[in-house]
Design goal:
10 helices; eight-stranded parallel beta sheet; single chain; alpha/beta
Length: 294
């Protein structure tokens, strides 16, 4: 049996290296209302059962509602999950980030996060955020920190600050129809040995000229590979590049069949010919583009 696709977060001065599934579980739009809550909880628990142990959430999602769903899903099984959440930029100050993290932990029903991300660059000096993240780490409330929606210039600024090079990941929008990070950001992060997380990997957001899920080449190739079009997009997103797998995709799923489909991609492989056909249909940009964000 094929080993499930994995991505390694390198060791830091304070935490050992950790291997994570190349597909985790996103929670954007979860927690929006009581009608779907039980289904969302069951979906996350099923994903956990199937090996998608990374769960990604944020204080922004449903104004904390998604974190409460995750907390319910992880009740009694917190140690099975690698738990990620994010702080609003305006909550990322020297003291406000501490309070925001503590509120997140309370909603999640846990005493620590495995990874805490600054959701996007904001107006608070990055030094303040880094100081808060270090205090949270020293207090045992977070294990690692990272960022989200940072472009190359943002990453260079971060790395120039004391402690900035301890950043574990950068989470950005990435899918077959939005490949701008391949030009400059991904190569820069590879030089630093820093993996990526890719949100919206099923191409439902960003600057899209066309929808890959309805594309004829995508659908034909998916049928040839014995995959659904969504599975094909996921398999492409987490593909090894130059022999290295360094991106964790975080699709959201509530229907059990979709959860199972996502988890099955951890065992899928695409050959070079299939990848070449996809990338000819959806070519990478020839020059640097503004970071695609949602």
């Amino acid at each position: 049996m094929t080993q499930p696709a994995r991505v390694t977060l390198p060791a830091t001065a304070h935490a050992p290296a950790v291997e994570l599934p190349a597909i985790g579980q996103g929670t954007w739009f979860m927690g929006e209302g009581p009608a779907s809550r039980a289904d969302e909880v069951r979906a996350l628990q099923l994903g956990l059962d199937l090996g998608m142990t990374l769960i990604d959430t944020a204080e922004m999602y449903a104004d904390g509602g998604a974190e409460k769903v995750v907390g319910e899903a992880l009740a009694g099984r917190r140690d099975e999950a690698f738990l990620v959440s994010k702080v609003y930029p305006w909550n990322a100050g020297r003291d406000t980030a501490i309070a925001a993290c503590e509120a997140t932990l309370e909603r999640l029903g846990t005493d620590h996060l495995d990874l805490y991300l600054l959701h996007w660059p904001g107006g608070i000096p990055i030094d303040e955020t880094l100081e808060a993240f270090e205090r949270l780490r020293e207090a045992g409330k977070i294990r690692r920190f990272g960022v989200s929606n940072f472009d190359v210039d943002d990453m260079e600024t971060l790395y120039a600050r004391p402690g900035g090079s301890d950043c574990a990941v950068n989470q950005v929008l990435y899918h077959l129809g939005s490949r701008g990070i391949e030009h400059a950001l991904r190569p820069w992060q590879r030089q630093q040995g820093m993996p990526l997380m890719g949100y919206c990997p099923l191409a439902r957001a960003g600057r899209l000229q066309q929808d890959p899920l309805s594309n004829q080449v995508v659908n034909a190739l998916a049928a040839e590979q014995g995959l659904t079009p969504a599975q094909l997009l996921l398999a492409w997103a987490i593909r090894p590049v130059d022999g290295l797998r360094d991106l964790i995709a975080t699709p959201k799923a509530v229907h059990p069949d979709h959860v199972r489909d996502n988890a099955a991609v951890l065992q899928a492989t695409l050959d070079d010919q299939a990848i070449d056909r996809l990338e000819a249909e959806f070519p990478a940009p020839f020059a640097k583009e503004p970071l695609d964000v949602v």
